[in-house]
């Protein structure tokens, strides 16, 4: 419908009413037009002049789109709303998908569409939170400004206004600890290596893979300044860290009378144990004041502070009075520096250990802070809505959060249908108390990006309550146009893998699992959906039209789907290996072990076509932080460690952050299974059960050797290889008889 000079009376009436609501609403701070133009220029590669940006006033974030004087008019009440309106135009009118990865291209149409029906949306939630402490290890640890700039634009375009912002805090802590008698060398030794900083910041361990290089500390602080400047310019309110009681053990050398509690170290050795300072000690508030004063001086503030005492750790006492005193002390330190301080507490603690965090204990802690000055992130609502069993966190403000990913696992699992029902039920519940927003607390970026886009679109778009309708428009943005076959295929995928299969801890596949003849490794539980149903749907995805095949977003989705079909097939091949072994059939054993390892190679081939699934890219980004060969090898070990053993050899969290990454499959996972199959060959004739305890030691030694290998011994490609569609089609034809 062409809208240049002629509008229908009906459309005019609707728009007049819509705009009248804007103009009579209470004025907000208004959008930063220059920053919005700069964002549009970055995304469209310099085409902001084709857009006409105008401020409006409204009580909530609102945008309106129309064609005015042959330009795309975006009228909005805030910079975030303007960015969201721009994204609405790209997705729904241009059919353009903008991902959260800087490595992905944004393919704009040669001529921007000017003929479209006017549209507008209002946000129903004040707060839209994003990120998790762990994301700064599993995903962003090696990011440079170019990555962050792109990602911040993505957040703005998805309407996010409360990002967690914890990069570079070690620089400030180093200055604080210096004031309390510690040298810079002692502080660097207290900090972990780069990839484990999220857990060091949460008070879960110290020193592991440290000391942290000074160049990293300084560089990350400079990066944080850029991050905060851009986030604030776009109208976001970043959440900065605060002190929650975690201190260096070396502090006791200077203050021998302080009371410290050992909180453990995630099985990385007692030398890496974290320590908690008794909140009743006068030093506690002094540290809080020093840190927040230094942080405010260097970075400013938006009055939101993250502090999470006892995350996955037992407090020194479970007495409600003790927990209340702890909370009151933490907050009093915040308030003394910032009277407007709001404490952001992640609710994972209360979900994770619900047995101990009883309502009386939790209520005592929450109510020790003045009303509305502690905001809870209800962390894992797709699994358990803690607000429902705590009377809305005892009427404290809370944000309903979808977690969606642990460890950056790369499995296709996103319970969009379940989440839509839960979120709608909460929103419509008259007793939802102070639900102030929605958010996501993902640990790492995986392969279900659309789920997070859907979540934040839900805050603005009432149609998103029906994922079946929403997914059709999403399919258009992935193909660049309306491809009926692909739209229908996405609709079929919803009730299969996007229904209710929650992305829980250690969601993986058999290839990633510790090798065994039946079952799967503790941190590699399998999906619960119908694998055969996905295998039956997949070939339809290959029937895309030529325009879709030329779109890298479609081919990305194609690669992800085929990868999932293949790793699901690995379950039946592994089971066939087990049957052949127990029946002492050497011929079948060789056949199915050969097929299993061949399948690993093909998973490696299809993932090699996607940049985000390249182990080589992860390692290169890590090595780029070093200036000497020794430093480069140090960063590479950190990179390898996090995604495999996490801790030392045989660590209990091995495979927690399992990935379907090209290079990792061929050298790490396939290597472990080859070792296992060779061990089985030694006993197949006897039928004796394999000695799994003995093998696990071999496997752990293999894992640790892999961690301690570097690029000079085991190089990986950091650029994609192969045409995705051709590779996918060839692999499908090869394995179709087994599906």
Descriptive account of the structure:
- The protein is an alpha/beta fold.
- The protein contains 28 helices and 15 strands.
- The strands form three sheets. An eight-stranded parallel β-sheet has the order 6-5-15-14-13-12-11-7.
- The protein starts with 8 loop residues before the first helix and ends with a helix.
- Mean pLDDT is 94; it is low at 1-28.
The shape, in one word, is: globular
By secondary-structure content and strand pairing, the structural class works out as: alpha/beta
- DSSP strand count: 15
Q: Give the integer mean of the pLDDT values.
A: 94
Biggest sheet, open or closed, and with what strands and sense? Answer: 8 strands, parallel
* SS strand fraction: 5-15%
Multimeric status of the protein: single chain
| Alpha carbon gap, first and last residue | 46 Å
Estimated helix fraction: 40-55%
Radius of gyration: 26 Å
Unreliably modeled segments:
1-28
If strands are numbered along the chain, what order do they take across the biggest sheet? 6-5-15-14-13-12-11-7
Supply the number of helical segments. 28
Signal peptide: 1-27
Domain Alpha-N-acetylglucosaminidase C-terminal: 470-734
Organism: Mucilaginibacter rubeus
GO molecular function, one term: hydrolase activity
């Amino acid at each position: 419908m062409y809208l240049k000079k002629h509008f229908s009376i009906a459309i005019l009436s609707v728009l007049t009413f819509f705009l009248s609501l804007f103009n009579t609403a209470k004025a907000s701070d208004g959008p930063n037009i220059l920053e919005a133009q700069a964002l549009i220029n970055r995304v469209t590669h310099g085409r902001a002049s084709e857009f006409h940006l105008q401020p409006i006033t409204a009580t909530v974030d609102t945008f309106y789109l129309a064609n005015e004087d042959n330009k795309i008019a975006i009228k909005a009440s805030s910079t975030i709303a303007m960015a969201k309106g721009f994204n609405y135009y790209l997705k729904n009118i241009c059919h353009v998908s903008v991902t959260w990865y800087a490595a992905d291209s944004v393919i704009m149409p040669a001529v921007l569409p000017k003929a479209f029906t006017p549209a507008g949306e209002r946000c129903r939630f004040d707060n839209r939170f994003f990120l998790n402490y762990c994301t700064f290890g599993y995903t962003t640890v090696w990011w440079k400004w170019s990555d962050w700039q792109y990602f911040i634009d993505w957040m703005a375009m998805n309407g996010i206004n409360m990002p967690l912002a914890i990069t570079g805090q070690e620089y400030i802590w180093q200055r604080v600890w210096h004031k309390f008698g510690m040298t810079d060398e002692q502080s660097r030794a207290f900090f972990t290596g780069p990839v484990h900083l999220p857990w060091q910041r949460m008070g879960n361990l110290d020193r592991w893979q440290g000391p942290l290089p000074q160049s990293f500390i300084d560089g990350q602080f400079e990066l944080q300044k850029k991050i905060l400047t851009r986030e604030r310019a776009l109208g976001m309110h970043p959440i900065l860290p605060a002190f929650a009681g975690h201190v260096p053990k070396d502090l006791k050398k200077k203050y021998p009378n302080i009371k410290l509690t050992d909180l453990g170290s995630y099985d990385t050795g007692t030398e890496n144990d974290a320590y908690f300072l008794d909140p009743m000690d006068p030093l506690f508030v002094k540290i809080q004041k020093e840190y927040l004063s230094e942080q405010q001086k260097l970075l400013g503030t938006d009055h939101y502070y993250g502090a999470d005492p006892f995350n996955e750790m037992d407090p020194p006492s479970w007495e409600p009075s003790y927990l209340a005193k702890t909370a009151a002390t933490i907050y009093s330190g915040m308030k003394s520096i910032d009277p407007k301080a709001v404490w952001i507490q992640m609710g994972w603690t209360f979900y994770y250990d619900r047995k101990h965090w009883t309502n009386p204990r939790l209520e005592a802690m929450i109510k020790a802070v003045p009303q509305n000055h502690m905001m809870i992130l209800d962390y894992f609502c797709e699994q358990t809505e803690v607000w429902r069993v705590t009377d809305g966190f005892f009427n404290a403000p809370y944000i309903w959060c979808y977690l969606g990913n642990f460890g950056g696992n790369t499995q296709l699992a996103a319970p969009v249908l379940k989440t839509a029902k839960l979120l709608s039920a909460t929103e419509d519940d008259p007793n939802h108390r102070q639900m102030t927003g929605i958010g996501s607390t993902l640990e790492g970026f995986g392969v279900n990006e659309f789920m997070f886009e859907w979540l934040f679109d839900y805050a603005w778009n009432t149609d998103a309550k029906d994922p079946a309708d929403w997914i059709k428009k999403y399919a258009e943005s992935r193909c660049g146009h309306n491809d009926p076959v692909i739209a229908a295929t996405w609709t079929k995928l919803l009730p299969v893998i996007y229904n209710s299969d929650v992305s829980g801890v250690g969601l993986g596949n058999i290839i990633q699992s510790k090798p065994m003849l039946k079952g799967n490794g503790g941190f590699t539980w399998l999906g619960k959906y119908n694998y055969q149903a996905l295998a039956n749907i997949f070939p339809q995805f290959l029937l895309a039209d030529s325009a879709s095949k030329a779109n890298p977003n479609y081919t990305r989705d194609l690669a992800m789907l085929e990868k999932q079909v293949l790793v699901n097939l690995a379950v039946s091949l592994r089971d066939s290996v087990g049957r052949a072994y127990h029946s002492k059939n050497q011929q079948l054993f060789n056949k199915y072990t050969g097929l299993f390892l061949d399948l690993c190679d093909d998973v490696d081939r299809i993932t090699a076509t996607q940049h985000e699934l390249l182990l080589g890219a992860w390692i290169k980004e890590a090595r780029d932080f070093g200036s000497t060969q020794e430093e480069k090898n140090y960063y590479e070990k950190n990179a390898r460690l996090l995604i495999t053993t996490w801790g030392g050899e045989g660590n209990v969290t091995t495979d927690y952050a399992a990935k379907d990454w090209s290079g990792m499959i061929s050298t790490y996972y396939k290597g472990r299974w080859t070792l296992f199959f060779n061990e089985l060959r030694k006993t197949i004739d006897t039928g004796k059960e394999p000695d799994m305890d003995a093998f696990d030691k071999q496997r752990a030694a293999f894992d640790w050797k892999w961690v301690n290998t570097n690029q000079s011994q085991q190089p990986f490609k950091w650029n994609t290889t192969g045409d995705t569609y051709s590779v996918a089609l060839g692999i499908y034809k090869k394995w179709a008889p087994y599906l």
